[in-house]
Amino acid sequence: MEYFIDSASIEDIKEAAMLGVLDGVTTNPSLIAKTGRPFATVAKEICDFVKGPVSLEVVGTTAEEMIREARELRRYGSNVVVKIPMMSEGLKAVKSLSSEGIPTNVTLIFQPIQALLAAKAGASYVSPFIGRLDDIGQNGLDIIKDIVQIFNNYSFNTKVLAASVRHPVHVLECAKLGADVVTLPVKVIHQLTKHPLTDAGLKTFLEDWKKVKA
Ligand code: E4P
Description:
Layout: E1 2-6, H1 10-18, E2 24-26, H2 29-35, H3 39-49, E3 54-57, H4 63-73, E4 80-85, H5 88-100, E5 104-109, H6 112-121, E6 125-128, H7 130-135, H8 140-153, E7 159-162, H9 168-177, E8 181-184, H10 186-192, H11 196-209
Parallel strand pairs: 1-2, 1-8, 2-3, 3-4, 4-5, 5-6, 6-7, 7-8
The protein binds erythose-4-phosphate.
Erythose-4-phosphate binds at residues 6, 26, 28, 107, 127, 129, 131-132, 163-164, 183.
């Protein structure tokens, strides 16, 4: 399973690289807005630093606008994956972009059939938002299970990118269910390193070390 960083902050991205868990990056318009910096500056900085795929999202709402934006976004780097919202116009854009060889990530997926449609249109990735489903009382992990099964049934190459991941149990379950990628805030990566027995064990080792004669 690959680890992407769900952030537009270059500090977060560099931190993940130092931790050895930077297979790629996902952004969205809200994450870009959070940086308070111009889109072009942020996009260039991320694409120059990251070797793996970087998802940059279109904001047009017609297929024509999305296709035009996609071609512009690809100027930031050959690693740019164009993030397209799940909607009919989005599917038209995905179909056309995939025939041009431009990779796409269909975002805002909340039910498995949306993912199947995106895969049929030629999407490179689908992004089911598990945390936001949990937020409204639906088990977000169910959708990962269903999409993985559907894609296996029909041998789609489209990757399942679990998004809106909020905590370590999401990551564990995604790995067990066979998600290809999880995209995480850096905070969750730090949470993944933790266990109370690790902390207690280290404390004891360091205390005992003081008793060792030089
Ligand atoms: C995915 O690509 C999205 O950027 C992201 O995971 C959304 O997460 P959120 O629900 O925490 O905003």
